Amino acid sequence: MGMIDIQNIHFAYANGPPIFDDFSWRIARGDAWAVIGPSGCGKTSLLYLLAGLYIPQKGQIQIENKPVTAPRPRSGLVLQDHGLLPWATVYQNARLGLTVRGFYGSDGRHAPIDEELTMPEADQRVQYWLEKLSIQQLRSQYPSQLSRGQRQRTAIARTLAMQPDLLMLDEPFSALDAPTRQDLQKLILNLGEDGKLTIIIVTHDIEVAVTMGRRILALNLNGNRHARIIENSDA
Amino acid sequence: MRPQINVRSALLGILMFTAIWQVLAWVVRQPILPGPLVVVPIFFQSIFGVLGIHFLASTARVVAAILIAVLAAVPIGLILGQMPKLDRIMAPLIAITYPIPKIVLLPVIYIFMGITDISKIFLIALIIFFQILVVVRDEAANLHPELILSVRSLGAGRRALFRYVYLPASLPAVVTALRLSVGTAIAVLFIAEQSLTSYGLGYYIVVETYQVLQYPQMYAGILAMSLLGLLLYFCISSLESRLCKYQKG
Questions:
Q1: Domains plus CATH for chain A?
Q2: Can you give the pLDDT at residue A1?
Q3: Chain A hits for B156, Cβ within 8 Å
């Protein structure tokens, strides 16, 4: 994946002040970024914009020199509240992304054009990630029966089963106990080690930002025209 | 709260009901209230004959009405739930028409559609339609926006959202609405079957038995109609339990 290029975007919610006013940001392939800032500064909105779920009112976001106008097949987003289907089991939830791809076929819009998975291959991939995230024994449970950490891991398994080249996580470690948090942090850092996966983590926790982000973007409440970038090469 | 009913409690209920009925029959001691010892043998004799045909006719009408109502109301409810602007336009009309007891439209339906099976089924379907429309619309509209965004981020467009989110999200509400309206549906069926038809439990109870003072046979017909209601309620209730098991976290 080439660079992510956010060019002079302006974004505001209806009747609200601008969250992003002439904001620009560049992300190189394989980078690991942490995004921090006070509540309401636009951290989650930034992820939605990168994921193609929101469109800026002015300016443009490009990924691999293509404008982002809709969710991109190789972008993976894990939201703070996980977005799991309450009526589906852990296995069905983890498979959902691949199920949706199968629903549309490899059309390049809803699913990558260069990926055609058979059902057994898709099942294998999901099984792999359930085991890697130590939740395979929960495959028949429903989200209401899981702890927050288990729901978090199910959502991550769902995204990783789709083999994204851009992984975006919104507060992935909040309300997790320390051992679970460390395991997840290690897993995500390992994923990014080969330089093929670009990672962006939104967090309010400075410690998480310093641990996970080789570079840190500090947003503010003033439209983020001049957001600070902090190099953190020790991460 | 949904009353808990399983096979065991249903049998117990039937036993208690039968006992009370028999006691009342002994107290009243009139031909207008025969006891279960008289009616039940007549029921079992005729359910495999004439009564059975009327039972099947009524069952077919009410099941057809349920299917039509569900197939019409679910897509419309989902569309209204997903499109707030359209919902805002339609909401006043739905709010006004929803509380109208649809049974009062029976003469109008008969005028336009004739006194046929279709018009009877249409009336029952209309009643169930409104119940389902409102719950499906509300369920679709109240889905957490973050859930929708999350599934959209997986590449889901409108069709996939409909198939994997909106439809499964609304199914439990549909089944609950059905469970709550099955009693009314049977009641309306009873009334509708009293006019210009030769088949159906309503016809059997009122025209073929009550009007010729065949009271034991009339009670057998009432038993059959009660059984129809009970069976429908049971089926819908167990479907509801299956669809809602994810909620018992």
A1: 1-74+165-235 (3.40.50.300), 84-163 (no CATH)
A2: 47
A3: 100, 110
